[in-house]
């Protein structure tokens, strides 16, 4: 039995340990590893970005986190790209995953339009405001705030629980007026699950701030969308996850237009990043049943904390 457990952990270690070792290396050591007289060719950085994004796609699926949450802090800390370009690519990374899954989730009745539209309207406005604010700030200030945000997200991921089928006594006035409720077939219990939500006003306020943070830092917001929909508003976990992706696709698209308009989306960075993450996500989906996802999630949280600390140090100019 112990040998079987070791075999299951081997793919996790091979996938995650290189990234952890890279994060722990000081910048001076990384710089010293390159020949001092020969500057690195641009195409090498593009190739490294694709390889990193590929592994990121695998890890993000196994850990159940959005690729944008890991992409922006790590790439901004270890690659010689301007933070504005990294944030623009990070939005497209988060957006690509959400858009690819959206149609299927809508057909299955898991992603709900009545629930997602009011949240997306609020979140889109705030994500545009966040993108404008982020592009107006200095790179060091954004880097510092990014580090603080990433460490806070890691803490939320450690503490946030999950509820498969939350109990909702009565819908609030807004939910009733908008008809936010629904049902879907759950094959694991062979039943049709009927659901409704409550605390919609509080949820709208929180989604405003979530959208602002996502737009400012170029990150996806699944880390916050799902707990708010599931634990606060009372949507079933599967509905919360699916609707979160739908909200993210709308909010991310709104913020991405700002980065495009400001010239902060560079194809040389965005194309290998999106391509690598999408390819890695398919591999990660196949590995999902073969590895201990809880262990991967812990390692990812540790990586986020380290990347957050590095972002703070870089933002402070140390």
UniProtKB/TrEMBL annotation:
Topological type in the membrane = Multi-pass membrane protein
Spans traversing the lipid bilayer: 41-73, 85-105, 204-232, 239-259, 265-284, 296-313
Highest rank taxon of the organism: Bacteria
Family statement: Belongs to the 4-toluene sulfonate uptake permease (TSUP) (TC 2.A.102) family.
**Quick one: signal sequence residues?**
none
UniProt-listed InterPro entries? TM_pro_TauE-like, TSUP
Answer yes or no on keyword Plastid: no
Query: According to its UniProt record, where is this protein mainly located?
Result: membrane
Q: What is this protein called?
A: Probable membrane transporter protein
* One Pfam family of this chain: TauE
């Amino acid at each position: 039995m112990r040998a079987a457990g070791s075999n299951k952990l081997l793919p996790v270690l091979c996938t995650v340990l290189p990234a952890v070792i890279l994060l722990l290396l000081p910048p001076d050591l990384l710089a010293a590893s390159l020949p001092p007289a020969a500057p690195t060719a641009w195409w090498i950085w593009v190739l490294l970005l694709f390889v990193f994004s590929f592994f990121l796609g695998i890890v993000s699926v196994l850990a159940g986190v959005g690729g944008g949450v890991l992409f922006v802090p790590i790439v901004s800390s270890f690659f010689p790209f301007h933070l504005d370009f990294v944030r623009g690519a990070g939005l497209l990374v988060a957006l690509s995953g959400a858009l690819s899954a959206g149609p299927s989730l809508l057909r299955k009745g898991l992603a709900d339009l009545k629930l997602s539209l009011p949240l997306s309207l609020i979140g889109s406005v705030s994500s545009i405001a966040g993108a404008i604010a982020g592009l107006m700030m200095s790179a060091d200030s954004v880097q510092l705030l990014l580090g603080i945000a990433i460490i806070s997200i890691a803490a939320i991921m450690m503490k946030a629980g999950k509820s498969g089928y939350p109990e909702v006594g009565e819908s609030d006035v807004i939910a009733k007026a908008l008809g936010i409720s629904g049902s879907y077939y759950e094959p694991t219990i062979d039943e049709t699950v009927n659901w409704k939500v409550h605390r919609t006003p509080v949820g709208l306020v929180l989604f405003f701030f979530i959208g602002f943070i996502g737009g400012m830092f170029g990150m996806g917001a699944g880390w916050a969308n799902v707990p708010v929909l599931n634990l606060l508003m009372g949507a079933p976990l599967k509905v919360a996850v699916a609707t979160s992706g739908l909200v993210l696709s709308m909010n991310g698209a709104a913020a991405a237009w700002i980065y495009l308009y400001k010239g902060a989306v560079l194809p040389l960075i965005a194309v290998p990043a999106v391509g690598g993450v999408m390819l890695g996500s398919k591999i990660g989906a196949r590995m999902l049943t073969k590895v201990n996802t809880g262990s991967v999630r812990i390692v990812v949280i540790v990586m986020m904390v380290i990347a957050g600390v590095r972002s703070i140090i870089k933002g402070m100019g140390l």
